[in-house]
Amino acid sequence: MTVFDPVLDPRLAELRDRVRDFVRDEAIPAERELVDSGAEPTEELRRRLQAAAASAGLLSPTAPRRWGGLGLSMSEQAVVLTEAGYSLLGPLALNCAAPDEGNMHLLHRVATPEQQEKYLAPLAGGAVRSCFAMTEPSPGAGSDPSMLRTSAHWDGGAWVVNGRKWYITGADGAAWTICMARTPEHAGSPAGATMFLIDADNPGMRIVRHIDSLDRGFVGGHCEVLFTDCRVPPEAVLGEVGRGFAYAQVRLAPARLTHCMRWLGLAQRAQDMALDRAAEREAFGSRLADLGMAQQMLADNEIDLAASRALIAHAAWLMDRGERASAESSIAKTFVAEAVGRIVDRAVQLHGALGVSHDLPLALFLREVRPFRIYDGASEVHRMSIAKRAVRRRTAARGPQ
Amino acid sequence: MTVFDPVLDPRLAELRDRVRDFVRDEAIPAERELVDSGAEPTEELRRRLQAAAASAGLLSPTAPRRWGGLGLSMSEQAVVLTEAGYSLLGPLALNCAAPDEGNMHLLHRVATPEQQEKYLAPLAGGAVRSCFAMTEPSPGAGSDPSMLRTSAHWDGGAWVVNGRKWYITGADGAAWTICMARTPEHAGSPAGATMFLIDADNPGMRIVRHIDSLDRGFVGGHCEVLFTDCRVPPEAVLGEVGRGFAYAQVRLAPARLTHCMRWLGLAQRAQDMALDRAAEREAFGSRLADLGMAQQMLADNEIDLAASRALIAHAAWLMDRGERASAESSIAKTFVAEAVGRIVDRAVQLHGALGVSHDLPLALFLREVRPFRIYDGASEVHRMSIAKRAVRRRTAARGPQ
Amino acid sequence: MTVFDPVLDPRLAELRDRVRDFVRDEAIPAERELVDSGAEPTEELRRRLQAAAASAGLLSPTAPRRWGGLGLSMSEQAVVLTEAGYSLLGPLALNCAAPDEGNMHLLHRVATPEQQEKYLAPLAGGAVRSCFAMTEPSPGAGSDPSMLRTSAHWDGGAWVVNGRKWYITGADGAAWTICMARTPEHAGSPAGATMFLIDADNPGMRIVRHIDSLDRGFVGGHCEVLFTDCRVPPEAVLGEVGRGFAYAQVRLAPARLTHCMRWLGLAQRAQDMALDRAAEREAFGSRLADLGMAQQMLADNEIDLAASRALIAHAAWLMDRGERASAESSIAKTFVAEAVGRIVDRAVQLHGALGVSHDLPLALFLREVRPFRIYDGASEVHRMSIAKRAVRRRTAARGPQ
Amino acid sequence: MTVFDPVLDPRLAELRDRVRDFVRDEAIPAERELVDSGAEPTEELRRRLQAAAASAGLLSPTAPRRWGGLGLSMSEQAVVLTEAGYSLLGPLALNCAAPDEGNMHLLHRVATPEQQEKYLAPLAGGAVRSCFAMTEPSPGAGSDPSMLRTSAHWDGGAWVVNGRKWYITGADGAAWTICMARTPEHAGSPAGATMFLIDADNPGMRIVRHIDSLDRGFVGGHCEVLFTDCRVPPEAVLGEVGRGFAYAQVRLAPARLTHCMRWLGLAQRAQDMALDRAAEREAFGSRLADLGMAQQMLADNEIDLAASRALIAHAAWLMDRGERASAESSIAKTFVAEAVGRIVDRAVQLHGALGVSHDLPLALFLREVRPFRIYDGASEVHRMSIAKRAVRRRTAARGPQ
């Protein structure tokens, strides 16, 4: 079975249809609020939408069943998250948006039972939000994680974190964050990076500001966060000391794939709007749908959508088989981020001036999808990795010459 | 001489340098206000900037000297307007922004002396603003001007205009508009379209709303404007009855070229920011400027800039020789609109998350330039014209087969 | 299972490995002959390679087992034909090249038992070659099949075919052709098109010339073929009279997908050469593999390859489930034809002057893959279909507005 | 005056028209020979065409008048060489093809009067051909000239050259070559590279082979040339010892621009063929010229042609003013090489199967233009230079921060 054919699995088909109805009835109508305010979704909106999703039995599709989620596999997520992404507010409503969705995955994989009880349970239940503090402003860790400057040292039985993070999505209002910091050798652990679970009410953690950004679709915004002598106990360490970069990979590969799923849904929405426009609008004596240049844009959208879906499905299927799929998810992310941008751009173009007006949500989509070519690894960084991996694989396959 | 070498003309070089200094000292600092407010420039800001420009002797570079402008040729405008466009607020400050700049040109070419005195003089002097009401919402005249639905009929010694226009830039606060309406045969004039000069305080003209749009760089916004039994006297006719489509061409060809000049300036600004970033930011052990993929983006920007400049220069030079240059300005518009979008997009990408934040104005540039592929003739409409014209020209050149 | 994971099916994995070894040992060494001659593969070469394939038990992977083939499903073909396509001569060697492979499929689906015995059996066994005569020179049926001009009429108990075909691949030396002709209403069959099986020794069929073409990879060339009062008996009708256009679809959808598989293999070969070059060649103080612009080309190739594979796999999987997959195969064909061209082009570029020399086969690959954007439906024609189908699907899904 | 308006200069307009007629009457008809043979132009064909050009007073438009040429400025060359390039054989016919045209320029600028008499005079007169031996096979000087491995040492009053060159255009049949070799410090000259004029009958110089290449449009082919203890007297040094890299720049900047001019002419030819096809061929009930996707290709060709012309004109104009125009010619070369490839490719696509057949010369054009993205500096190398230059220029303009 592939994710594209939930018809093979009637339960998945039924779930997909329920998500589709929910998105149409609850999420899409709420978008107007976003378009009109030009601001981030409010906490109140989140609570309202998530309550509706909980009533519909659709909350937290990616979270483990044990913590109240639907426990979907990656292939199943590809169906459901794409459907959710059909609205800008769908993933938030279903509690499967970034960064919470990625944090759930990471806690599920790495956290202790006590940490899961304390952090994962309320997150999966929609009681709280969280964030993930890795990226730093220049000259810190951006595209190149090895430039990490936030550090933690061991002092009197506690870790003390110092550093500045930015573009920390959802930080304002989050109950806690996972913070990545450079750590020295410690009690047998190697020097490296360590992830810490830090409660938002820790006096050493401070939200400096909301960064005003092209995209505004994330509740809690993109924030600058300062850690100043932020003391956390040893049990705040997520997993093991010194393994932060490895855990980042655990989080990143699936997280970038779920990003792709959600944005693919939005791209499908843009294309549906373009198809509707093409079927209705006339110019130069024809329906747009019968004009060659419009057909070309519509067809290129179909091709981009199909290739995006196929790349996502393949990577998801590999992950469900237990593989890392780093190469595949990196390729999918790079392609989908660019494809989604092209698709929305063509949909805007097909609408003419209406497309850049906020009478429709397309202009907002344009703003929301642009940063995806930068977030979660800029396209250039992924391409560098993809090329290096390909050269290594080929060189290994050839053996000594 | 070409516009690229004002050194050949010391006066032009000196003018360019003064514009450059003015933009750096007055226009760029004022941009922060736009970025922070997320709103259109205010009338107050316009007045402040234009007063500064007037003091500097730089007001209205495209307006005839007779009306207080600098009376520059198109080739000279290519130098000065590009320099002005280096800031989002430069053209407004110098009173050479759309739509006023195009209206000045049209009035200069078509209006009666009385109309020039009444409308052109205060416009060129920065005392008032104006707008140009041609585009209509679906199913009216958008890409295809032949779908014009606004109409005027002759009734008791006056013209009575009825219709709905939208995306009328600068309408709110404008002293008057030029309105394009379909007219029947009248007193020897053929049926067709006619342009009317309509004062904003005419009770038949009403600003319905500001259309919330992806771009917000125009003072007075993009408005929806309703004409309801709007009565205007015979002397409100601009030029001759029935010649509206011909006058639209008079306005459009140079207006789209001055658009190109201004946006080219902004693209140059984005590239300068990208070059600075590349020279300063390090990643993966190198300056960005030494990384191949960054070099490729920087080089592609240089190429796009050079080709844009050259196409603009060539069309301007033809116009200065008295040619229509419809084909050339259409080609320039199509290329430049797309090139400018690519250039700003690459500059954003080179800045990573900083590029999509409003800490820099780049994200705003991205929003402002996107609609240029739609305004003043969508790229698809220009391509259709370019192709048809090329086929006709070739067929004529071959003669009978 | 997907085609990408033959490891899940040890028999398929084993078959793939044997094809890989065969291609490396037999097909690739024979390519030099093609490169040096600049000519089509000879009949002698075909017989030699197919004899080797038969010895290796690899002949006719797509043909039914009943006729001596391997009877692979489309998903299995995706593995094996891609592997075969790794050499320009691999598909010919395995007897799964166009047009024979498509003809086998069509005969298997549509022909009578007698026709299968007479035509399919020797074709699947490699005893003869065949061709498919549909395309016509201007103003006949090219991109637009409705412009079909070849016609047949019923005369004295026989069909009489008249018309001119061109770009008939493999015609010279083929034992027979399937010829598409316009037919009138006949004995209860509707007017339309009919397919005829015509033996090459029919005096009414004549090979006019080999068309000298950019690509030369097909044995028997691309020929112009003239049918002049070509009489064939009623049993020459393939399937039913008047259903030719429907049968063309039966042939085309899978045939374009197997085309994609084969060319994908060649693209993978080009990429492997590019990876080898990048790992070995130094310039500007680095290995090419460490230069950003080279990495970008290599990564773009990986992305194009992955997306091509995924689109092919998805369409093949649908076909194996009994679906037509017209939309999916059309999308795959359009994307893959363009992707393959890009991949080979980048591989050439990475090799510099060596890439355009015939010291390597890359320049030949460049010539061979270019026409794929035209053959089997030009990209533009596919895009038109893709767009129309999408508009129809969306309009139907929305229901009455 | 710009090159685009020879009407301003009646003599230039008249010259252009004569070249146009000559190309139509002499060069284009001779192309069929090339298409049919698939081989390089023969020496016999060169002599025949150049005799006709000499009769028409059109020989050697770029050579100084003193040596029998027309002594055109770069801007004038832009008119005439583009016109010549309208046929693959036009530049050869007029004796303004590579590499002779570049060698004439270099000798004119650097050679001694004696060298000019001996080498330039017969070259400009069409009596002999020449070549330019710089490029080396891997791991020598390709994209990166600093990897030069051919060397010369001073031995007993003579220079002794050793090394292997390849892709030496026109070597077979050339009367002499300019050979670039690494030289040590010598008699006050610094270590570096030196250019030597070497007669083809020097026993130390040997044509190893014609390299079979994708392009075959150059008489004398692309050859591999071996220098083995090749002794040349001191007066064989072109210019000064140790200044070879500087002279390479003297030759390269204008030579790459004249390349652009010639290929632009061929691209114009391809577009004219596409326009003719679009006006004549029908499909789907319309002329191609009325189908949107065809219009898009035709329009993109017009845009690419216009931008190419404008970039060439600007660089030529700068050179005529005495500037190096390295940046501008590098930008022009990169853009034009890619644009020309796109234009020919689109023209092929618009012709369908006919476009890839050799019934038309388009498929040959496709082969001939592809290497231009590699020759004279691969696009990637130019982009690296363009980016570095831009960063340096910007950094200098900003001054200390």
TrEMBL record, chains A, B, C, D:
Acyl-CoA oxidase/dehydrogenase middle domain segment(s): 131-230
Cofactors (names): FAD
Domain of life the protein comes from: Bacteria
Family annotation (InterPro entries): Acyl-CoA_dehydrogenase, Acyl-CoA_Oxase/DH_mid-dom, Acyl-CoA_Oxase/DH_mid-dom_sf, AcylCo_DH-like_C, AcylCo_DH/oxidase_C, AcylCoA_DH/ox_N, AcylCoA_DH/ox_N_sf, AcylCoA_DH/oxidase_NM_dom_sf
Record-annotated Acyl-CoA dehydrogenase/oxidase N-terminal domain positions: 13-126
Keywords: FAD, Flavoprotein, Oxidoreductase
Annotated ranges, domain Acyl-CoA dehydrogenase/oxidase C-terminal: 242-390
Quaternary structure and partners: Homodimer.
Annotated family: Belongs to the acyl-CoA dehydrogenase family.
Protein name: Acyl-CoA dehydrogenase
Protein's organism: Thermobifida alba
Lineage: Bacteria, Bacillati, Actinomycetota, Actinomycetes, Streptosporangiales
